[in-house]
Write a structure and sequence with these properties.
The chain is an alpha/beta fold and 174 residues long. It has a single domain, classed as 3-Layer(aba) Sandwich (Rossmann fold), CATH 3.40.50. Helices cover 29% and strands 17% of the residues. It is built from five helices and six strands; from the N terminus they run βαβαβαβαββα. The chain has helices at 32-41, 62-77, 105-114, 128-137, 163-167; strands at residues 4-7, 45-51, 83-89, 122-125, 141-145, 158-160. A six-stranded parallel beta sheet has the order 3-2-1-4-5-6, sandwiched between helices. Strand 1, helix 1 and strand 2 (45-51) form a beta-alpha-beta unit. The longest helix is centred in the middle third of the chain and has 16 residues, at 62-77. The protein starts with a strand and ends in a 7-residue tail after the last helix. The chain binds magnesium ion and zinc ion. Zinc ion is lined by residues 89, 91, 97, 99-100. Residues 8, 10-12, 16, 125-127 line the site of magnesium ion.
């Protein structure tokens, strides 16, 4: 079984522009490629898990979202970073689906489809709901990208000020 790093998209891999579905506006965060290449070198499979309620809210179509995601994958692939899967929740918070983070649905689906051992895998994201999803799924550990540790949530997770610094915290047992 593979071990993976589950990565949030907006605010983690690329600059978070509210409800962004414009493929011309994909801006990877600082040292994004170096960080992900480092994770690949450690033997981790990379999987994106992203909440895209803009679809349910009618701000953009799921086709536009797919196009955006494909373009993002292409930009990363040009830098030798490859995503094994890219999972999007297109529901609104009111839909009470099982995939919108903090629910673990996307991680569990990816694990099943891509033969990933969740307990050997990590979650990295810039919101508490990301680490909550990682914890709910049973990940080895979850890292919140944040300058400071929020006091509103007392779960068991790590913090790092940037994606690059988060990538340096991961280790591999196997
Ligand atoms: Mg985010
Ligand atoms: Zn959903």
């Amino acid at each position: 079984m593979k071990k993976a790093v589950f990565l949030d998209r907006d605010g983690t891999l690329i600059i978070d522009l509210p409800y962004n579905a414009d493929p011309e506006k994909i801006y990877p965060v600082e040292k994004a490629f170096d960080a992900l290449k480092h994770l690949q070198k450690l033997g981790f499979t990379l999987v994106v898990v992203t909440n895209q309620s803009g679809v349910a809210r009618g701000f953009y179509s799921s086709e536009s979202m797919d196009k955006f995601n494909r373009q993002m994958a292409k930009i990363f692939l040009q830098e030798n970073v490859s995503f094994a899967g890219l999972y999007s929740c297109i529901h609104s918070p009111d839909d009470s689906c099982g995939c919108r983070k903090p629910a673990p649905g996307m991680i569990l689906q990816a694990a099943k489809e891509l033969d990933i051992c969740v307990s050997e895998s990590w979650m990295i994201g810039d919101k508490i709901s990301d680490v909550q999803a990682g914890i709910a799924a049973g990940c080895k550990d979850s890292i919140l990208i944040s300058k400071e540790r929020p006091e509103t949530y007392s779960g068991n997770f790590l913090t790092a000020p940037s994606l690059w610094q988060a990538s340096q915290m991961l280790y591999s047992d196997v």
